[in-house]
Amino acid sequence: MQSEYGRAKLAMDVRATSLWTEWEQQLVEESDEKSLRSANGTIVILNTIGVPEIDSAGYSSIRAALDEYHEPYEDLDPEELDWLDPDPVSRPLKAMFIPNEHALNTQALLRGLATAFTRAQGTLVDAHVTDVRIAGDKTEGVVLSTGEILSSPSVVIAAGAASRDLLGALPQDIRERIPGMVSGYGVALLIETAEGRAPDSVIRTPNRAFACGLHAVPRENGRIYLGATNNISPEPRDTPAIDDLNLLLGCTRQLRKDLVDGRVDKIYVGNRPVPLDGFPLLGEAGVDGLWLMTGTYRDGLHQSPLLAQDFAARLTGKPHDTDLDVFTPLRAPIQAMSREECLEAAVQHTLALGYEHDWGIPVDWPPVIEDQLRRLYSEALDEFDPAFTPPPELLASASPEINEALHTYYRAYGERL
Question: What's the CATH number for 41-101+182-275?
Answer without folding.
Answer: 3.30.9.10
